[in-house]
Amino acid sequence: ALVAPQLLQQQISQQSPLQSPLQTTLVTHQTLPSMIEFLQQLDEAEETGDYYIKFLEGFEKQRVRVKHLYKLNDTQFEACGVTTIGDIETIRDAAKKYK
């Protein structure tokens, strides 16, 4: 539905002074899982048993967190032990929701 700018401004000005736009963003932002939780969730989603969890040690060795995954290039993934294109793309795609 289209909302007239005047109505939108009125709605914004009626928000509780305790609820800033930043707080609203933080409430709707995904909670960041630990790396082990992320890899376990990926294994469940992809139905791959314990396949992705085997990369945990490589990510920990390089001190990579979930928030870093979507930004890693292929060489950085390889430094963590992830060498196949499909695995890199699957991990990167799954991590995008935690930007």
TrEMBL record:
<protein>
    <recommendedName>
        <fullName>SAM domain-containing protein</fullName>
    </recommendedName>
</protein>
